[in-house]
Amino acid sequence: MKKAILFMMMVICTLITVAQDDTLTLNGKANPTATINGTYPICLGDTATIPVYLANGPTWDVTFSDSYTQWTVTGITTSPYLLKVSPPNTRSYVVSLVDNGTCSAPGPPTFAMVTIEPAPSIYTISCATTTFCQGSASADFVTTGSESGNA
Hints:
Blueprint: E1 2-9, E2 12-19, E3 33-35, E4 38-43, E5 48-55, E6 60-65, E7 70-76, E8 81-85, E9 91-99, E10 104-106, E11 112-117, E12 124-127, E13 140-144, E14 149-150
Parallel strand pairs: 4-11
Antiparallel strand pairs: 1-2, 3-5, 5-8, 6-7, 6-9, 9-10, 9-11, 12-13, 13-14
């Protein structure tokens, strides 16, 4: 005797007829995953490029967060996706949600850190001696913001 069984998974409905002693195996699509990590030092005003490795797609929609704002990038077709950010201060970036059009999953418990490095010091070099003799092996110089020296 055959029984009609209705299976409903998410929004997909299928009517399957199986015999009483039949085995029914349902294979679901794997949840999408995203991997984001690492430390990316930049100078203020520069852009950091963070690779985000994606699996079980394509296509992916990925929601990112930096603790201040949250945004979604849609229609990603290749992995790794290169997230480009220019934060005003040191920030961590996480994947909040990743979706492959069929399934969605929370992001991993990892993050990428973009650190803002201090601006380099600017030194002014001026010669202490204005007259140089041919064959002279050295000259005195003075720097501001640093130490005096001899070259």
